[in-house]
UniProtKB/TrEMBL annotation:
Pfam families xref list: NifU_N
Protein name: Nitrogen fixation NifU-like protein
UniProt superkingdom: Bacteria
Entry-linked PANTHER family: IRON-SULFUR CLUSTER ASSEMBLY ENZYME NIFU HOMOLOG
NCBIfam families hit by this protein: SUF_scaf_2 (TIGR01994)
Natural source organism: Streptococcus loxodontisalivarius
Segments forming a coiled coil: none
Domain NIF system FeS cluster assembly NifU N-terminal: 10-127
Gene3D superfamilies on file: 3.90.1010.10
């Protein structure tokens, strides 16, 4: 079975983000929030630096499968410079997309829109959403602390 051009593009972009993830590391002076996916062993430590309600900087570290790492990299690209409200909206769009719900708003995800194919593999949805869930919890913690 031959791969479609979109499938080939998906594989190339996911592979690139997994091998050379963007915003990988830690942010000095920022407490990381750690989440794991016990199903496959993915672990992420997400550091988010806020300037009021804007995500000024973001970085992730940890160990994860190709999909988890690529999704984390794409997520950081998509939300840096966004307000917390915008980032939460993108997280919701992403979550719905990888569950198979299509929406024109997916275009706002940038390259993360290519992760839509994960919906064909329900066992991988948790891998794809791990970083996005860590982002939601980081924003929630930020808002609770009133910073």
């Amino acid at each position: 079975m031959a791969l479609s051009r979109l499938d080939s593009l998906y594989m190339a972009v996911v592979s690139d983000h997994s091998k050379s993830p963007h915003h990988h590391g830690v942010i000095e002076g920022v407490e990381a929030l750690q989440l794991n996916n016990p199903t496959c062993g993915d672990v992420i430590a997400l550091s988010v630096k806020f300037d009021g309600d804007v995500i000024e900087d973001i970085a992730f570290a940890g160990n994860g499968c190709t999909i988890s790492t690529a999704s984390s990299s794409m997520m950081t690209d998509a939300v840096i410079g966004k307000t917390t409200a915008e980032a939460l909206e993108l997280a919701e769009i992403f979550s719905e997309m990888v569950q198979g719900k299509e929406d024109d708003a997916q275009e706002r995800l940038g390259e993360a829109e290519l992760m839509a194919g994960v919906s064909k593999f329900p066992q991988r949805v948790k891998c794809a959403t791990l970083a996005w869930n860590a982002l939601k919890k980081s924003i929630e913690r930020h808002e609770q602390l009133g910073q």
